[in-house]
Write a structure and sequence with these properties.
CATH class of the largest domain in chain A: Mainly Alpha
Number of strands of chain A: 2
CATH topology of the largest domain in chain B: Rossmann fold
Radius of gyration of chain A: 19 Å
Number of strands of chain B: 14
CATH topology of the largest domain in chain A: Arc Repressor Mutant, subunit A
Oligomer: heterodimer
Number of domains of chain A: 2
CATH superfamily of the largest domain in chain B: P-loop containing nucleotide triphosphate hydrolases
CATH architecture of the largest domain in chain B: 3-Layer(aba) Sandwich
Strand content of chain B: 25-35%
Largest interface: A-B, 25 and 32 residues
Order of helices and strands of chain A: HHHEEHHH
Strand order of the largest sheet of chain B: 6-7-8-3-9-10
Amino acid sequence: MAAIFTVDPHTGVPIYLQLIEQVKRSVALGVLAPGERLPTVKQLATQLTINPNTVARAYRELERDGVIETSVGRGSFVSSNNAVDMSAQALSSVAGSAFDAAVREAKSMGLRRDHVHELFDQALMHWYPTDEAKEQAQ
Amino acid sequence: MTASAEHAGTIDIRSLTKRYGTVLAVDDVSFNVPEGSIFGLLGTNGAGKTTTFKCMLGLARPNSGTVTFGGRTLEPAMFEHIAYVPERSALYEWMSGNQHLEFYRRSYKHYDAERARKLTDLFHLDLRKRVKALSKGQQTALAVILAFSIHPKILVLDEPTSGLDPVHQRHVLDLMISESSAGTTILFSSHQIGQVERAAERIAILHNSKLVMQGDVEQLRSDEKIIEATFDSETPSLNGIESDPRVRLVTRNGRLVRAFVRNDTEGLMKLFADKQPRSLRVLDQNLEDIFLSAVGDDINAAKSWGG
């Protein structure tokens, strides 16, 4: 299995959290299909050159969240039941904390509430253009 | 009976102290390395890392404190299962790589010739050369090959990548990682923090012979944050925050205040918010930041000297 995950050990974000997010993202986007086998802890640790217990920790949490299932001797698989739903929910919470961080940052720079609102509308219009806006652009 | 056989790889260091004359090289250092884990020992030069290793392996006699492996103090029979790569080469200059391997074959019951051959290929080492004809990096590679060739239960590596190119450095890390998956306990020191934050599960930081911080690397990354606040006045009053046990260090630069905090960042953010700062934010810290703040006094002194 090709290395579909990457981690950056040199950030302040714990590696196991980086892995969890990437697995969930891959499942939500269909890069990993339900029932698909994940690399073993040892394989992934060696592939990414990270501590095996870090990988084991990520797998444990993913299991607890119902995204993957592990059976002794057979390895870990993307859960067939509700992995996609769980992962989609997780992505929404990742997006949520990104919004939260952005708003907090704006506040820390002393921006007023209506100004932040304006910025948000601009970004929304840029990435989610309405049909009207699309026509106008043409 | 002390420890059960399945924890034979646990290393426990308690209140280790070592003096050389009037110099205190290791001052009351304690840490525990669980079996099968990778533990990184960090510290500036002269912090006491090498002396700690020497005391562990019976190469220096501690003034006080204990070192146990699986609950037992070091005894000759254990050397069969312990491999040590010292910071300064302990190889015989007049002997070739082949002669070193032969020496190991005769000395160690678990010596694995096939493994030694594979590792030699991995590091592109010419075993016919005498050690004195090898570069610093090649000597490191030979020491690493020897250490891994005996399938040790415990590996102690003092700067195991010094002189190696980045590709070979990565090989050493990969070896450590796969060896620990197989149950080997690994204690290593490195100045390359990038290696430590990849490979190590737990770390200890030595500074001026004392242990100044230890913990789980992922936990440290989660817990250790910087709260940065800017105030309207030059001398904001923080009454009490500086002595809060959750705050490790506060630096002030005019209106800018940075607090190095551990745990409960949210709670401390509220305390800061009460002081009506102009801006307030949380910064993540990587292991290098954490290390530098743990040995912070010297860094700040150097900066003030540098102007």
